[in-house]
């Protein structure tokens, strides 16, 4: 026997579902069953606010009467798991972290920030990237150039100039002048310990996070001249399309 639906037309709304009530959710096509007390477990979270007495009736429902949240629900189960058991996810940690931020589950956000996976990403890699001038803008340029070179080709290559220090910046024009009008995307210089290879690894990670398959190698000219590569200058980022 189904429970009476306080949201059904023609019925008086109750003051709100009891905290022990079973709730069905449709999060972007992923269906979950939980309790209202679980959703309200952290009163300062966005989830608790959404399912508070004053807001719950405003939530849209799907064709089967389940509360509908118009967001990708791939990792919502990990949020529920934490609310139920306090267990942290061991897979897709960064993705779950983004969901925890969205739903403002602050306890989960803090614990994930302290986890080994996120500590290295947020305190190490992201802090380094923030010290590389115009990193995100140059990443966009890099992808755009690669796509422009992809017509009727299996691979496309983009020349990347990595300038580790201010001294390298002074040699930039000479290095680029030897490229015979090839477009170059420049990164650096920066003031932080990581090397040119560390930066290239960051670029590779961020490009692959967008769904591209990419690798890098030292760049050499058609005349066989290998540009300085031990800690900077010219590299070739190679995209594989098929």
Automatic annotation (TrEMBL):
Coiled coil: none annotated. SMART domains: BTB. Residues 21-120 form the BTB domain. Pfam families: BTB_2, KCTD_C. One of its GO terms (biological process) is protein homooligomerization. InterPro entries: BTB/POZ_dom, KCTD7/14_C, SKP1/BTB/POZ_sf, T1-type_BTB. PANTHER family: BTB_POZ DOMAIN-CONTAINING PROTEIN KCTD14, POTASSIUM CHANNEL TETRAMERIZATION DOMAIN-CONTAINING. This is BTB domain-containing protein.
